[in-house]
Amino acid sequence: MKPSTKAFFRLHGWRHPLSFLHGYIYGRWINTYLSVITGKTFKRRKRKAGGSRSGSRPPQPQTGFGRWFEERYHSKVLTHEDAGKIVKLNKPLRVDNPERVIPYEIANRIILDTPGSLAVMRCPCREIKGDSACGPLEVCMVVGEPFVDFVVDHGTNGARKIGREEGIEILEKARDSGWVHTAWFKDAMAGRFYAICNCCSCCCIPTRAMKRTGLEAKYLAPSGYVAVMDTEICAGCGGCEKICAFGAMSDNKGTVVIDREKCFGCGVCANLCPSGAATMVLAPEKGIPFDVEALG
């Protein structure tokens, strides 16, 4: 047994062997895991057997297994600044009561005993999608031990260790591409924060599920911010409406209207607004930001 596997087992403890096994399968064969969980494998088989794709459907609420799963596998939207703070963190972090940060009953422990330990791997959502996926693929960062050593030792999606500088470069490229930074938690990863993903609305499985359900699926929690628009300097270019992953932007006779309920505070509009009209402000009703400087 590899040392990283032993460390991963100790993380779960002798009392939770099934949780360890669940995490081992997820951490080592994540593409297959997600394909099975999302029904991707079944859909491919159906098409190969002559089945057709279903037409467009109105948003469907998340029920049954979907509701159960989102409590155990979910994320917190991050602004670019807050994602960078996690990568740059140079001291251990432990948040004992993170419910206002991560509003889920399960898988919401924020523990970083080894800040600065980072790995990057190919995005499983993009790999599952195949040739039509966005690039580049190396955009998912695993954070902290024993997770980093585990995915590197087992070659999960080509995982390799990186330094903080490369981690920041990955975040910057994702920002410039208009992708959403997200911090991920899972029950099988000892209920802890373990990864930063950079998600696009066309490839990311949870984001697509949220769009399909009219944001009824709750895989992503808001960042704790919302976007506001200075209509005096807004150029009315319509760019923010096109890039918003959550459909929170709309045009009303040349004026951008922001649906505060739909806004998840990712900051993509503020990052890419050519006139600087979009900015982010704190929104207490959206929870507390995952800001390691404030939480620590």
Describe this structure in words.
- The protein is α+β, with helices and mostly antiparallel strands.
- The chain contains 13 helices and 13 strands.
- The chain has helices at residues 3-12, 17-28, 30-38, 40-48, 65-70, 80-88, 124-129, 147-153, 164-176, 205-212, 239-243, 268-272, 292-295; strands at 73-78, 93-95, 110-112, 118-122, 138-143, 160-162, 180-186, 192-199, 220-221, 225-229, 249-252, 255-258, 278-282.
- The protein starts with a helix and ends with a helix.
- Mean pLDDT is 89; it is low at 40-61.
List the uncertain runs.
40-61
How many strand elements? 13
- Strand share of the residues? 15-25%
Helix content percent band: 25-40%
Q: Which structural class do the helices and strands define? A: alpha+beta
What is the radius of gyration?
A: 19 Å
Q: Could you give the order of strands across the largest sheet?
A: 6-4-5-8-7-1-9
Q: How many structural domains does the protein architecture include?
A: 2
First CA to last CA: what distance?
35 Å
Elements, N to C (H/E): HHHHHEHEEEHEHEHEEHEEHEEHEH
Main pleated sheet = 7 strands, mixed
Shape assignment: globular
Mean of all residue-level pLDDT scores: 89
Number of helices: 13
